[in-house]
């Protein structure tokens, strides 16, 4: 039994244009003709079409499908195994993207609603990079401290934010002064500023023991977006992120009863 292009298009769920494309690509050409000269698909052609649609559903490109059909030495099973590995990686990537989207929604819901003018009044030049906040949320998703920080941040009022950002601005000015005046990063003044920052986090977000504070400071050097939450780019100096990290590490060593490494300069 033979079938016209229109019939095959209808029951195979593909367009006539697609069938013509497969014909031109040499993938599937109708093997029969009607008395009037119209090209018709045979039962064997339909079997081949099913194979093409199967491979297409799995994401195989047309040239690879053609290679499978043309070369009898090609092992379709090996091609399928390779495609399965690719699909597994893609599934994992999409699952991560879905999780990122979910976390991003949580991050965006955190905090109070402020007008642009109020946001500038409260936060000044400090901006919150959504991509960094989302990555941090993913990184610490299973951390009790992260959950507490997010919950407390969400509960802060506008006045809370105004107060905590005021404290942060005063601390920032002291840090910049210490750096500009050449204070050693493991000196008492710098370590006291590191301790003040640690207590600020504990007071407003979550308990921040010295080890956690060290990990936070490591991000200052590893990711500019993290340091921008502490010092806006317009106020940063070369070496300031590393200086702050060293001060935090020195303060953590002081808490542990250890001694920070001495340094000749910043």
From TrEMBL:
<feature type="region of interest" description="Disordered">
    <location>
        <begin position="247"/>
        <end position="266"/>
    </location>
</feature>
<keyword id="KW-0010">Activator</keyword>
<dbReference type="InterPro" id="IPR036244">
    <property type="entry name" value="TipA-like_antibiotic-bd"/>
</dbReference>
<keyword id="KW-0175">Coiled coil</keyword>
<dbReference type="InterPro" id="IPR047057">
    <property type="entry name" value="MerR_fam"/>
</dbReference>
<keyword id="KW-0804">Transcription</keyword>
<keyword id="KW-0238">DNA-binding</keyword>
<dbReference type="Pfam" id="PF07739">
    <property type="entry name" value="TipAS"/>
</dbReference>
<feature type="coiled-coil region">
    <location>
        <begin position="77"/>
        <end position="104"/>
    </location>
</feature>
<dbReference type="InterPro" id="IPR009061">
    <property type="entry name" value="DNA-bd_dom_put_sf"/>
</dbReference>
<feature type="domain" description="HTH merR-type">
    <location>
        <begin position="1"/>
        <end position="71"/>
    </location>
</feature>
<keyword id="KW-0805">Transcription regulation</keyword>
<dbReference type="InterPro" id="IPR000551">
    <property type="entry name" value="MerR-type_HTH_dom"/>
</dbReference>
<dbReference type="Pfam" id="PF13411">
    <property type="entry name" value="MerR_1"/>
</dbReference>
<dbReference type="InterPro" id="IPR012925">
    <property type="entry name" value="TipAS_dom"/>
</dbReference>
<protein>
    <submittedName>
        <fullName>MerR family transcriptional regulator</fullName>
    </submittedName>
</protein>
